[in-house]
Every structure is written in C-alpha cells, then in structure tokens.
C-alpha cells in the first residue's frame, strides 16, 4: 500500500504564511483574469462596431434578393432553383410547428393521450437522494445508488484582510 506524502509545513505559523501567499496568488490570478475579460470585451465591442454596418448591408441585400425572387416566382414553377454565376436562389418548402400557448398545448396533448408528442428530460435529483438516504439508504442501494461521505479540507484565504494590507 502506498504511503501518503507528508506536508512540507511543520507548524500552523507556516500554514498561516502559506495561506497568505495562497490568497495573494488568488488575487493576482483574479486581476489577470479581469484584465483578460476587459481586453476580450473591448475586442468584441470593436468587432461588433465594425461588423454592424456590414451585417446591415448583408440583411438589406438578402431582403432585396428575396423580394426580387418573390416578384419573379413564376420562373420557379418548373425548377425550384435558379443558378447564377455567383450563387443560387431557390424556393424550398419549409415546415414549422406554430404554438400560441405552450402550456395549453401540453395540457391538451395529455388530455388527448398524445403524450408521445411531448419531450421530457429525466435526471437524477441528487439533493433528494441525499435526503432520502437518511431514511432508507438500503432501498437506494437496490437502485444502484450509494452515498459517499468523506472529510474534505476546506481552504479559504481571508481576502478582506489581504486587501487591507496592500
């Protein structure tokens, strides 16, 4: 059996000093991540400003091509696609489901025994399993669910004190 490694610290004073260093390093890391986020947001804003006008132009051209195709829809009766030098324009039959009130539709589908048209997502509720295990853990074991308990060390540098010292 492998022996667990011993800590490099030999006293609580050393642990306290390490806690201070840990807190300072976390503060430095958070500052760097904050700077990174600011730079990313700045780049995104610049790109959005530049692309905004282009997106408007794209939408306008697409809208006018669509209008032209609708005005000349009779040309698409035999062939649904018009090949051009720089692309194609085509009409495609697209179907979509329209539902004015989702809740009412779901109730109606259930009342009509059309449950197979309803999508549902099942997942294990771990919080409820923990609560239930206190009363009947054996039943959970039959379902292949066990509760694992272990002591974990929680390390929390005092950022308020660290920031006050800077």
Describe, in plain words, how this protein is organized in 3D.
By secondary structure, this protein is mainly alpha-helical. The chain has one domain (about 10-140). It has helices at about 10-70, 100-110, 125-140, 160-165, and strands at about 80-85, 85-90. Strands 1-2 form a two-stranded antiparallel ribbon. β1 and β2 (about 85-90) form a beta hairpin. The two termini are about 45 Å apart. The model has no long low-confidence stretch (mean pLDDT about 90).
Number of helices: 4
Low-confidence stretches: none
- Describe the strand arrangement of the main beta sheet, using strand numbers: 1-2
Distance between the termini: 46 Å
Count of beta strands? 2
What is the total number of structural domains?
A: 1
> How can the largest sheet be summarized?
2 strands, antiparallel
Helix content: 55-70%
What's the mean pLDDT score?
90
Share in β-strands: under 5%
Give the H and E element order: HEEHHH
Category from helices, strands and their pairing: mainly alpha
Rg from alpha-carbon coordinates: 32 Å
Shape: flat
Task: Reconstruct the topology from this structure.
Elements: H1 12-71, E1 81-84, E2 87-90, H2 102-111, H3 126-142, H4 159-164
Antiparallel strand pairs: 1-2
Summarize the structure.
The protein is mainly α. The protein contains 4 helices and 2 strands.
